[in-house]
Amino acid sequence: MSFRKTRHEDVDAAYGVIEQAKARIAALGIDQWQNGRPCREQVAGDAAQGEGFVIERDGDVVATVMMTDAGEACYDAISGRGWLTSSTSAAPRYLTVHRFAVADAARGQGYAKRLLSHAEAMAAEVGLESVRVDTHPGNAPMRSLLAKCGYVECGSITLDVDYDEPTLERIGYEKLV
Fold this sequence. Notes:
Shape: globular
Strand content: 25-35%
Number of strands: 7
Mean pLDDT: 95
Largest sheet: 7 strands, mixed
């Protein structure tokens, strides 16, 4: 098993993992990831920018994630408890996790926790204060995973209006590293 940056030749497999996650989310009856995003082009862009990562097992991509330290503008306005750190998108001191998915065949084997552990290690390695993640309010499996991994529910954020989903509210989580 290896954790590494997504290569061009991994894009289809990584997107296939996301497609499986989209189907699981749809089965939960929530609208997250059901209107074309994330798309293959985003996964390819993540790889090209060095922000896409995969876990490979026995030659197969079993998990994928996008991680960036560029900051997330929609995180600047949060209602509720508020972020654990005072960092903003103008001068981010956090790593953001997006497009987080594990293949159906690898579920329940600890790969989701490994993705988060790698994010935390990467953030600490480059001197960031925390890792931030957001998810749909109805995505109980992801919310449970984040809580089990020590992420704190910080409040509600709203996705950019050009994000084509009926529910733009997301729950923001943060973990200090």
